[in-house]
Amino acid sequence: MVGYDPKPDGRNNTKFQVAVAGSVSGLVTRALISPFDVI
User: Which domain of life does the protein's organism represent (predicted)?
Assistant: First the structure.
């Protein structure tokens, strides 16, 4: 898998950070894709 590192040495993200990152990512994606639904 691209970008998969089984030994995340330098990454120590909390579950809250992961949740916020996923939420922001989904929000931005939805904001960019949603206008195309009406075309």
Answer: Eukaryota
- Give dist(CA 29, CA 22) in Å, integer: 10
Cα separation, 16 vs 24, whole angstroms: 12
User: What distance in Å separates the CA atoms of residue 23 and residue 15, rounded to the nearest whole number?
Assistant: 12
Q: Dig out the tokens for 23 from the structure.
A: 């939420």
Q: What would the pLDDT profile of 1-39 be if each residue is shown by its tens digit?
A: 677 777 767 678 889 999 999 999 999 999 999 888 776
Show Cβ contacts of residue 21 under 8 Å, excluding neighbours closer than 6 positions. Answer: 13
- Alpha helices, H only, the chain: 15-33
